[in-house]
Amino acid sequence: MRPSSEAELAEMIKGATGQLAVRGGGTRSLAPASGAVIETGGLSGIRLYEPGALTLVAQAGTPLTEVEAALAAQGQRLPFEVPDMRGLLGRSGQSTIGGVVAANASGPRRVQAGACRDSLIGLRFVDGTGMPAKNGGRVMKNVTGIDLVKLMAGSWGRLGVLTEVAFKLLPVPETAATLRVAVAGAEPAVAALSAALTSPFDVTGAAFVPHEGAFVRVEGFAPSVAYRSGELTRRLAAFGAVDVVAHDPWPAIRDVAPFHQAKGDVWRISTTPSKAPALVARAEARAAIYDWGGGLIWLLVDEGRDLRAALGAFDGHATLVRSASALPRYHPEPAAIAALTCGIAAKFDPRHLFGE
């Protein structure tokens, strides 16, 4: 099914007799679709773009490349540095802006600009009863008492089908610089990244790639970048030799490029940065990449290995991103949160059309 309007989508959902699977570009989903597929590609096009107001509204099926090209022509960008998961997941096709929101897809710049949901200012969607709903935005008023914008971002289509999204934007900075710190291991790397992130120098990227170094990025006007780079170099020298890298390491970090052709399962760990080195040591992973100052860890492990069992209880959660095994993809929720999740899903999708 490929609706071309929100009204047509609403009729499809009202008439559904079994489970539905929402599909944008098919580049981010963690598991195969189950049920009749609703493709959002027919809901495409930029509805409103006001560069002076740093605001964009687009239909959910609009290709991400179309959005990024329109913004680049005006010297602007989405603030949260969208990851491209096609190489990691072995997918083709074009990512859609609605898929970005459904996954809350957020890259290295999250440490400074926030996640996708933090730049999302409004949306429209059709819930499991076939009812259109809207929340936030330039002229939309929230009268529900629930922040649906935040709720829908990262919901993976389990509450309804997005039809339109609205974002606040940022200008593309004049220049950028990336410092590399030659650290002895994960613990000093995370300490160095923490020192950079807690400094007053507006760091927009903080990551550690073992055997390559700890990377710290600053962006902005050239004089400011030069000053902040110099100050950070002096601060970070306590952790190891510091140099300015000539290449741009961030696309590879953002897209988890070192794991693209590597055999094994890929896990995504969210945790407290200070706990990250110990978690990776317990995981006995084949490879690791630390992003968000250590708050996000990508792990490559042996195929079919239950990493959650190996880690035991910890402060955070583990998501299985790439695997041929039948292990659960998502981390089990505590009972109280699971009850809340089920209650919300029952309100938006009482017929369980979008459940996994």
Concise structural overview:
The protein is α+β, with helices and mostly antiparallel strands and 356 residues long. 29% of the residues lie in helices and 26% in strands. Among the domains are: 6-171, Uridine Diphospho-n-acetylenolpyruvylglucosamine Reductase, domain 3; 175-254, 2-Layer Sandwich (Alpha-Beta Plaits), CATH 3.30.70.920.
Structure description:
- This protein is α+β, with helices and mostly antiparallel strands and 356 residues long.
- Among the domains are: 6-171, Uridine Diphospho-n-acetylenolpyruvylglucosamine Reductase, domain 3; 175-254, Lrp/AsnC effector binding domain/regulation of amino acid metabolism (RAM) domain (Alpha-Beta Plaits, 2-Layer Sandwich), CATH 3.30.70.
- Helix content is 29%, strand content 26%.
- The strands form 5 sheets. A 5-stranded antiparallel sheet has the order 3-4-8-6-7, sandwiched between helices. Strands 11-12-10-13 form a 4-stranded antiparallel sheet. A 4-stranded antiparallel sheet has the order 15-16-14-17, with helices on one face.
- It starts with 5 loop residues before the first helix and ends in an 8-residue tail after the last helix.
- The model is unreliable at 139-143 (pLDDT under 50).
